[in-house]
## 1
Amino acid sequence: MTRLSSAQRHLVRFTLNGKPVQGEAEPRLLLTDFLRQTIGATGTHVGCEHGVCGACTITVDGELARACLTLAVQIDGCELRTVEGLAPAPDRLGVLQAAFRRNHALQCGFCTAGILMSLDHYLRAHPKPSEAEIRDLLSGHLCRCTGYTPIVQAALEAAAELAELSRSDHRDV
Amino acid sequence: MGVEGIGASVVRKEDRRFITGRGRYVDDIKVMGMTHAYFVRSPHAHAKITSIDVEAAKAMPGVVDVLTGQQIVDDKVGNLICGWAVHSKDGSAMKMGAWPAMAPETVRFVGQAVAVVIAETRNLARDAAEAVEVHYEELPSAHHIAMAIAPGAPQLHPEAPGNIVYDWSIGEEKAVDEAFAKAANVVTFELVNNRLVPNAMEPRAALAEYNEAEEHFTLHTTSQNPHVARLVLSAFYNIAPEHKLRVVAPDVGGGFGSKIFIYPEEMVALWASKKVRRPVKWTGDRNEAFLTDAHGRDHISKAEMAFDADNKILGLRVKTHANFGAYMSLFSSSVPTYLYATLLSGQYNIPAIYAEVIGVYTNTTPVDAYRGAGRPEACYLLERLMETAARQLKVDPAELRRKNFITSFPHQTPVIMAYDIGDFGASLDAALKAIDYAGFPARREKAKSEGKLRGLGFSCYIEACGIAPSKAVGSLGAGVGLWESAEVRVNPVGTIEVLTGSHSHGQGHETTFAQLVAGRLGIPISQVSIVHGDTDKVQFGMGTYGSRSAAVGMSAIFKAMEKVEKKAKKIAAHQLEASEDDIVIENGEFKVTGTDKSIALPMVALAAYTAHNLPDGMEPGLKEGAFYDPTNFTFPAGSYICEIEVDKGTGKSTIIKFVAVDDFGRLINPMIVDGQVHGGLAQGIGQAILEQAIYDDTGQLVTASFMDYAMPRADDVPSFEISHTTTLCPGNPLGVKGCGEAGAIGASAAVINAITDAIGNNKLDMPATPDRVWHAMQAPLQQAAE
Amino acid sequence: MYEFKYHRPATVRQAANILLKNEDAKLIAGGHTLLPVMKQRLAAPPHLVDLSHVEGLDGIEIKGRSLVIGATAKHADVAASAIVGEAIPALAELASLIGDPAVRHKGTIGGSLANNDPTADYPAAVLALGATIVTNKRKLKPEEFFQGLFTTALEPDEIITKVSFPIPKKAAYIKFRNQASRYALVGVFVAKRPSDVRVTVTGAGSEGVFRVTAFEEALKKRFSPKALDGIHVDADGLNSDLHGSAEYRAHLIGVLAKRAVEAANAKPEKELPEPDPTQPSVG
C-alpha cells in the first residue's frame, strides 16, 4: 500500500509518449499542472477547472482521461500519451493531424490537443464511425471557434484513410 | 505560384504548431523567479468594504506579498477608462462611475477584485487568499435593468443618478411619428436579448516582468490588440511609459471581443511585478472568466414598424435599454449605440427611423463587445420584427423582405450608415434554393405525420465591418483612430517579413496575409512570415476586432506592398537597363515585358541591400510601411434560413438544416472564410437555444460554470451549408468586406423565427430552451389572438 | 485544492482500515465527482483513499438470475459489456448515456451510487431493477441505500464492492439531458420484472431518485404507453431551477415514461420464471 503525506513532494515516474520521465509532486498537484509546469509539456491545455471542456484530454494506460481531474500521484507507473506524441516523426504529421489541417478543423488551437487525443483514441477502436458517433464523442469537448463541422469532417476523412491504410497494416493515426 | 495567392484555400501555416502541441500561449511561458497571483474577490453584488486585514495571509507559507485596492490608489494607478464618449440626447456627457483595478471602498459586482496575493505557487497563493480577511457592509443591489431603473433603486455610482449612463437617440423622431400616422398597419414587438458569456477556450492570463535596472516592463497577455493595451496602460493607468513597456500577445486561444479590453487583473499583474520586484503570473480559471470577462448583449427592447397598404415599410421606432453592468468597460458605450442603432435599417429601405438607447448600470459583470457587438442585437430585433410582420400581415416572409430590400447603391440610411454595395435579392434567392423553400410545406406535413413540428425561419442580416474610418468614428466620440498599419520587409536574400498591427487569435492571418504578399510577387507563402502581437517588433497598430483585419489590416499591407514593388521595380529596371514602366512581376521574377530579360526577387533584394549599384539618389534597403485608414465601413450581408423540428413532447428543438449565404466581397482564403462562418453560426445558435448568463436575487451569477451555462457542443449543432454571392467592396483595394462576425450576427433570428413558426406562438425569448418552448407550446393561440 | 494525504490501498480491507482510522477520509475512484468539488475548495478531505489499484473490484458477471457489476467497473466497460448487453441491455444503454466518453472511461458505478447525485443515471436503474448494493459489511436494498440528496446509508468505513441487478423481462431508460451539464434533467427507467413493473425517475426529485407508483400500477395491468394516458405526475416536490421548472419536469416524466415503455416493448421479452422469495438474489 502506498501512503503519501500532504505537504511533501513525492517522486512520480511514468512514461510520456514512450519515454521514461519523472518529477516530484505533492498529492494535491493536478496532472495538468504537473505535465505543464513540472515536466514542461505544455501542449495539454486547461480550459476549465471542472472536467467539461476536454482541452486537457490525454490517455493514461490507453484509456481517455481528463488530466485536470487526475492527480499527478495517481499516474505513477502509468503510460501517458499527449498531443506531443501524436506525430509519427518530427517532420511528419499523423493521418488525423493532417486531416485536421486539410479541413481547417482548428482555429485558435487551444482546444485542439484534447480533441485530437479523443479522436486518436476512438479511431483506433472504431475504424468506421458515423457522423453521429463522432458528434457524440466530440460532445466531451468544447470548441468555441469552429462550430465543429470541420472537426467532424476531419475525423471522418481520417477514419476513411486509416481504414485504407490498415489494409496495408499501417497504424499511425 | 498563383495557387497560393488570393482566392486559394491554402492550408494554414500556423496549424503545424497547434496540432503538435507546440503552440505558445501565455500560460505556457515560465520565467526564472516567477511568482503567482491569486485575487481575493467580492462575494457580494454591492457592498462597502469596512476593513481588509492582510497580515494573516502575509504570514502564510510561500507568500511574497498581499496587495490591496488602497495601495493601487496610493500609487496613483489610473482608473479603468471607457474609450468612446457617447452623449445623451440632451447633449450631456455620459455619466461614468470610477472603476479602480481593485476596489478600495465599494464593490459593485460579484467577482470584483479587492486584493491580490502574490506567492511562490498558485496553490499557495490561493491558500493565502482565503486568509485575507475582508469585512463588508452589504448594500442593496440591482442586477437587472428593470431593478436598476425602478424608482428608489439602489444607486451604484454617485455620478450616475438613477443608474442611467446615458439616454441617447439617433434618427428623426418627428419623421417617424409622421410615418406611423399614415401607416396602414403597425407591428409591435418586445424582446429580450439575452446576456452571454464569451467563453474563449483559453482563459485570460498575464505574465508581467519588471527589469529594475532598465526600469522596463514586459507584459505577455491574452490580447487581441497589444498596442492598444500598451497605450492604455501607459497613457491612462500610469504604470509605465510607452517606451518602457513591451506588450506581447503570443498565441491567443480565441477572443470573440473579450480580449480587446484591458482588465484589472492584467493591470494589477503589471503593477505588482514592480511592487514585488519579481515576475508575476496570473492565469484565470473558468470561474473567474465567467465572473470577470466582459459579458455580451443584455438588452430589453420595444420596437414598432409602420407599413403602408402595399406592405412597404414607412418607419421604425425602437426603444432599447442596455445593461452595462457595474462599470463602463473599454468600448462598452459604443456597442448599444453606434454599433447597434446604426444598423437598424438592416437590408431594408426604411425612410424614417428613430431609436432611443438608455444605458443602465447594474450590479453585474461589465458588458462590452462580444462577437458582433451591437450588430447581432440590431439584426435580431429587426429580423424578428420582419417575421412577426409577415405573420401578422399574412404574407410570405421572404416576399415581405424582398419587397422592402434596398436595391440601389450607394444607399444612405436614416441612421448614419451609407451602404456602398450589395445584392440582397441574390443572397435570398440562393438561400431559398439551397433550403428548397418550395418543398417546405410537404416536409412540414411529413413531420407532422410523425408527431413533430417543423418550422422555417429567415434572417437577412447586414453588418458594418472593416472598423473603421477614423474621422467618422472620431466625430461620433471614439477616443482612437481605427486605421491599421503594416510594414513589409524584404530581407537581403528575398524572404519577406510582414509586420502587421492586426492580431491573429484563430483567424489565420499568418496564412491569409502571406497569401496577399505571395500572390502579388508570385512566390510561395513559405517565403513570407507574418509578424504580429509584439509591440517591440511591430509598429503601432490597432488590433483585431470588428471584422477589420482583412478590410483594414490587409489594405495596409496592400499599400506597403505597392511601395515595395515600386522601389523594387526601379532597382530591377536599373539592373536590367530597362525602363521602370516596362517591368512586370511574375513568379518571383522582375521581367522586362516583351523581352527575355529578367531578374529574380532575391537578386533585387540583394542589390537593394548591397547598394553597390542603385539608381542615383536611391536609399539602400527594401522595406516600406503604410497606414491605411478606410473611407467607409464595409457592409457584409447575407441571408440565413433555418429549418427546425420541435419535439412536441419535450419542447426540444433540433436544427434539420441551416443554410447561410453570405456576401463578403472578395474571399482571400475560402476555407478560412467558411471556418469563420461556421464558428459564428455556432455562437449565434448557442445564443438562440442554449446560452444565458443568469443572476439570482442576490446578484450571484448562477451560470458561472459549464455545468450551468450551456455551451454549444458538437451534438447541438448541425453541419452547415454555406455558400456565397459576391459584390466587391468598392471602398478598399482588395474588395473585401470581412467575415468574422456574420454568423453570430445573423443566426439567432433565423433559429427563433423557425421555432416560433413551428410552434405557432411568436412569444418566445432566447434562449429557446426545451422548457421555454414547451411552455410556449401550451399557449399556441396567442399568436392568432394578436 | 487544499492539502491532503494520499493513500493507495491494495485491498478493500486496507481501504476500510484507513477510513476507520481517519475521520473525514474520502474514497476516490474515477475522481470525476470528488476532484471538481475539491478543486473549488468546497470539499477538503484530509485523506484521499484511491481505490483504483484495488484488484478484482471491476468484474462483470452473471450469477444465477442476476447481473453482478463490480464497484470500480467503469461506465464505458458497462456500456460495452456483452454480458450486460445480453442480460440487461437497458443498463448498457444507460451507461452509454452518462456524461461524455472521457467521463465514461473514468467514472465508476460504485462512485456514482455512493455520491447519490439527484441527477445521476445509475440510481434510476438500481431502484427500478431492485438491485442489491453489496458493501464490505452488508447488503443493502435501494430503498435503504438512497437517503436523499447526496446521502446514502453508507457508514464512514463502508465501501461498495458490487451491485447485483436481478434480470428483468424487459427494461428501458430514457434520458432527457440538462443542456449544460449533460446530467439528467429527467431520466425515467422502466422495468418489467417477473412480479411487477417499476418506474423510477432521476433528475426531477428534490430528494433524489423516486418511483412513480401510479405509473407502475397502470403498467402492471397493461405494459403499453397508452396505459399511461391521463395519468399525471404532480409537480409539487419536484426540482425547479434555471434548467427546467417543476411543471415542465412533471410533464417530461410522463412523456419519457411512455417513450421508455415503447423502447422496452421494442426489445424481445426475456423468459423468466416467477421469483422464488426464499432465494436471495445476490450471490
## 2
Amino acid sequence: MEVKLDKQYPLDVDATRAWALLTDLKAVAGCMPGAEITEQLSETSYKGGVKVKVGPAVAQFGGTVDVIEAVAAERKMVLRGKGADKGGSSASMDLTAIITADPSNPAHCVLNGQAAVIVNGKFAQFGGRMMVQVSDMLLAQFVENFRQTALTLPAPEGVGAATSSAAAPTGESATATAAPVVAREINGLAIFWALLKSWFGGLFGKRA
Amino acid sequence: MNAPVQTAEARELALAGMGASRLRKEDARFIQGKGNYVDDIKMAGMLHMDIVRSPIAHGRIVKINKEAALAIPGVHAVLTADDLKPLKLHWMPTLAGDVAAVLADQKVHFQMQEVAIVIADDRYIAADAVEAVEVEYEELPVVLDPYAALQPDAPVIRDDLAGKTEGAHGKRDHHNHIFTWDAGDKSAADAAFDKAEVTVSQHMYYPRVHPCPLETCGCVASFDPIKGELTTFITSQAPHVVRTVVSMLSGIPESKVRIVSPDIGGGFGNKVGIYPGYVCAIVSSIVLGRPVKWVEDRIENISSTAFARDYHMDGELAATADGKITGLRVNVVADHGAFDACADPTKFPAGMFHIVSGSYDIPAAHASVKGVYTNKAPGGVAYRCSFRVTEAVYLIERMVDVLAQKLGMDKAEIRAKNFVKKEQFPYTSAFGFEYDSGDYQTALDKVLEAVDYKGLRAEQAAKRADPNSPTLMGIGLVTFTEVVGAGPSKMCDILGVGMFDSCEIRIHPTGSAIARMGTITQGQGHQTTYAQIIATELGIPSEVIQVEEGDTSTAPYGLGTYGSRSTPVAGAAIALAARKIHAKARKIAAHMLEVNENDLDWEVDRFKVKGDDSKFKTMAEVAWQAYHQPPDGLEPGLEAVHYYDPPNFTFPFGIYLCVVDIDRATGETKVRRFYALDDCGTRINPMIIDGQIHGGLTEGFAVAMGQQMPFDAQGNLLGNTLMDYFLPTFVETPHWETDHTVTPSPHHPLGAKGVAESPHVGSIPTFTSAVVDAFSHLGVTHLDMPHNAFRTWKALREHGAAL
C-alpha cells in the first residue's frame, strides 16, 4: 500500500536554523515520535528504528535511513528509509524535505515535505484505511517537535531578537544542547483522540 | 404377531425414505455444540504448529535467522525449505499438474506465502516464536494483473520453471503463461460470426473471491514411530485422495496411512486441495514422533488457501435479427496466482467451463481459456460449483441479456426463443456435452406467472417515467443449466484416479444397517439423505440406518464431495449397492416362503407371494435368516459394495428471477424479491433441498453484492478479515422464495441430479442481471461485481441517475 504525502508547514523558525536541524539526521529522528537513530553506518547511512504503540499492539520497525541528497543551496534533503517489523510488516519511505524562507518574515520559514510511503504486510492490511489519517497525525507531531527543537538552537545573526552570539552549528550535533522535547513513543490513545477530533472537526466544517 | 396391520402407505411413511422431509440427523449434535471438528481433537503429547508467512508479494529470501525463535522455551523446531529439501518435500505436486512450494524455496511468490514453520508446546508459544523468526527479503517487482503478466518484459514469477516450454496442459509461450485451453469448433464459430446479422460483445470481470467456510483449514497429524503408521485428522472434502497423495509423497504404504475427515464446518471447494500446512504438520509429526496440530486462523484462510474465480472474460454472440443465436465465442484470461493449484479433473484445466453455451441451442461455439501466473495466492477452486460452471453460467447469461438489449427484445422472450427444447433431449451441445434431460420452457412459464412478470415490467416502466422516483427498479432473469456429478472415468480423473464413487452397505442380523461412503459431508446432510435412499430401496426405516464417511480405514475409496457429485455419483452407488442386497434378499425370501423368486412381489418393506397378502417376509426377517440359516449355495451375511462410474454427467437447471430497487441517493440495492425455481430431478429430501438452496442463494448474494479480494499495487491483500470480507448474516440476507419442477435424469438410477450448487451458480448472474436491468434504459449493458453501494453509487453518478 502506497501513501503519497505532500505537505507544507509554516514555522515560526528562521530558515537557517530549520536547515541546520534538518541536516542533523539524529536530531531529526528525535523529532519523529517513536523514532531513533541507533548507529551511524557511514557518512550518509544510519541505522535506526520506529516504535508504534496502538493499544496493546506494538510494532517495531528496524531499518536503515540513507541520505540520498543534501543540497545546502536549496535547503533540500532527500532521504530513503527502509525497515521491517518482526510481526510481518515492512515499510519504505522516500522523503524530500525543503526549507523555504518566508520572504515577508525572515524569522519564519516553510517546511515542505513530499513523501511516498510504501507499507507491506499486516500493517497495510489492517491499517490501510487509517494510513493517511495516522500519517497526518504523526507528521503534525513531528513538525511540532521539529519547531520546538529548532527554536532551542542559537539563532543566526540578524534574525529576530534572539541572541546571536553563537555561530551556526557545524559538525557537532545541533541538539547537543537541546533537551528532547516530547514523548519518545507514538501514543495510540493520543492518535485516536486527535483523529476523533479531526473527524468531528470535518463533520462541522472546521477542518483546515 | 399381534402388531396392527398397517397399510403399505403407512409403512412407507414410517420408513422416512426418499421424498420425506426428514429432519437432519446431524443437527442434534451441532446445535448442542457437540460436533467433532479437527480443532476439537486433542491427543496426548500433541504439539502445535504455526507458520511464518511472507509480508511481501514477491521477493528473494536473503536469509532466515531461527536462533531467537529456537531460544524461546517450549519451541521444539523451526523448519524452512532447506530443512525439507533432504526429504524432497520443499515442493509438492498440485492437482493441476504444476508444483507448489511447501515452504518458500529461495523466493516468495505471494503475500502470506508459507516461509517457515514453528513447532511448540502450545499455540501461544508457537505464535510468539513465529514473530521471533527473522527473515530478510530482497523485494522484486510485483505483477498482479494477468494481462500485464503476459507482457514480454513482465517480471518472471516462477524462476523454477525457467526454460520449460511445455506445461501440464500443452505449450507455454511466455514465462508467466500456464496453459491455453480450447473447446468447441473455432472455424465453425468464426463462420457463424462472419454470416451474422447481429453481433454483440462484452468484457466482464468475475472477481477473485474466497469460499470462506466458517471452519478454517487444519489438521492433526500423528505418526506412530513404532508401528510406522500415520493417522491424520484433516479438514478435507476428499480424504481418500489425500491418503493416496500422502502415501505418494511420504513413501509410507497407503495401508499404513489413515486419513480421517471428522465433522467439517463447510468446504465450498476450499477444502479440496492439499495445503502446505498439512504437509508440514505431517512431516513434523514424522520427524518429532509426536502428534502435531495445525489450524489456520481466518486471515490465513482467506489469504493463502484456495480462492475462486478471478476470470477476465470476453464474450461474443452472433444472432439473427430476430434474436436466434447462431454463434458464441469466449476468450478468458484466468488469473491462477503463483502456482497452478486449481482442483479440476486432470483433462480440464478450465474445469467444465465449456458448459458456457448454457440452456441454449447454439449451433457453433468456441471458448479459449488462458491460465496466467501472478503474484497472488494459488487456487481457482470450485466455490460451490462444479469446476468453473459458475463463471460459464455468468458469461452466457450476461451475454444473452446484452443481446436482448441490443435487439430491444425482452429477456424472457429471447431465452425462450433459444432454449434447447424438451424434445431435443438428450441434446449434444456444440462443446460436446450430452445434456441428459430438461424442460426449460415449462419452468420459465411457471416462474413468470408466479411473479407476475408483466406486472413487474409495467411497474418498472412507470418508475422510469417518473423523474422523481427515489429508486431505480431492475428485474433480473437467469435460465441456467449446470453440469455436475463428475464424472465418467473415461473423461474425468484426479491424479489418475477415476472420478467414481462408492458405497458399502451392511444389513445387521436384526435388520438395522450401516452404510459407509467414499464421500464426506460438510453440511450437506449426507447422514440424513443417504439413509433415506437405503430406506426406500431396502424397506428399512431410515432411523436405524447409520451413515459413516470420512475415515479411510473403514470407508470404501471414493473421490469425495465437491462439484455437486454426492447425489449424482455416490447416491447412485448407494442405490446400486442396495439393489445387490435386494437381489440376494429376494433369494432368501423365496427360500423362506418356499416359492420361486419370480413369484414374489416387493412392497415397501417386504417380499410378498403373488396373490397372497398373508404370505410375506419383511427385510428384517430376511436379514435374520441371512445370518441364521442362509439357503444352500448362498453365502451368509447381507451386505454389498458398489463402485459407481457414472455414464454421463447430470444437468440440473433452474429459472431465477430477482427484483431490486436501487436507492438513487445512496446506491444501496434492496433485493425486493428473489424467486428460485430449481429442477434437480428426483428429490430425496425436500427440506434439505430448500436448506441447500437458501444457503447457495445466500452465498450467491454474498459474491454478487459484496465479496471481493482487492490487492493494492504492492500485492497486499486488503480484504482478508471478516471486517472487510462480506459474509452476509441474517440481517443482510433477503427473503428467498423457492419452487421446483421435476425432470428426472434418465441415466441415474434414482433420476436425481444434485442441487446444492445450483443456487450459487444461478443466483450470481441473476443479481447482476437485475442491477444492470435497473440501468439498462440508460444504455448500460454490464456492471461488474460486486454491486455494493459505493460501486453502484458511482455508476449512478456516471450515468446521470444519482439523486
## 3
Amino acid sequence: MLKASGGRLDFFDIVNFDFKDFSKFGFSKVFVAGKDVFFYKGGERRDAKSPSIFLSSDAKEMIKNLKFFDFFYLQSYDTNLELATKLKKRKKFFLVSIGDILFSKGIEKANKIAKMSKFVKFCNFYDVDFILATLANDFYGVRTPREIERIGEIIGLTRQQARFSISLEKVGDIFEKYSQR
Amino acid sequence: MIFLKSILRDKKRYLLFKVFSEEKINEKEIAIEIFKNSGIFYSKINPKIKFEGNFGIIKTNPKAIEDLERILAVITEVNKKRAHLLPLYISGSLKKIKEKIRELEGKRKE
C-alpha cells in the first residue's frame, strides 16, 4: 500500500505537529512524531509497534543502540566510519533534518549547511542510506517536495538523490513491516 | 530612442509565489530577505517584486531562476514575522502568470 504504484514517486515527510492538509503540499504520507513515529534520546526502546528515531549527537552512543531503532538522527553530523559501516550492514537509515537549515541564522546556518553537505557526501561515498525530513513544528516549517529538492541541491545532492531520499519507496518496507504487526 | 532587436534584448522569467504569513508583509521586506539569503549572488538575481493580493511575482533573468527558488525555499522569516513563500509557477510572460493567478483564485472561490 505504501509503495509507489507507477513511475511517479510518492513522497513522505516527518513533522512534529498534526498536519492534515499534506496532500495539498504534494505529499502522499506525513508521519507525525509522537503518533506515527517516536523519538528516543537515550536508553532502550519501549514501543515496538511503530518506527523509531534515535536522536543523539554522539556517534558512539548510536553504535550501542543500533539494533533497537530504525532511523538515526545524528545532530552533530559527524562523519563516523564505524557507525556508517554498521548502519549499512543493518540496512538502517540516517535522518537529515532540513529544519536545521531553516531555523538557524547567519554563521550558524552556514556552519550547518557545511556540516550537512560534508555528511551527505560521506554517506554517498560509503553508500549509506539517509532520508530527508523537515521535522517542522508548525505550518511555516513545512516544505513541498520541490522545495526539499532545492534545499537538497544546496547541501550538494542532485535532484534525483533528493527526490529519492523523500520517496516512500525508500522507507516503505520499514513502515509496512510495522503496519502488518 | 533605440529599439533593440528581440534577439539582443535580455530574456526574463517571472516566478509566481504565494505568501503565507502571520502578518502582512510588503515587497521591500521580501527583497531585503532575498538579499540576506543570497549574499554575493544578489546582483545575478536582481529581483523585481510585485504583489497581487496573496500572490507575488518576481522578475529575474533565466539563469538565476533556480538560485531564486533555492533562496525562497530557505526563507522562514520576513522582517521577524513567520512566513513561507511558496513558489507556484515559472513563466516567460506576465500574461500567463496573471492567467495562473486567476485560475488559482477561481479554484479558491469554488
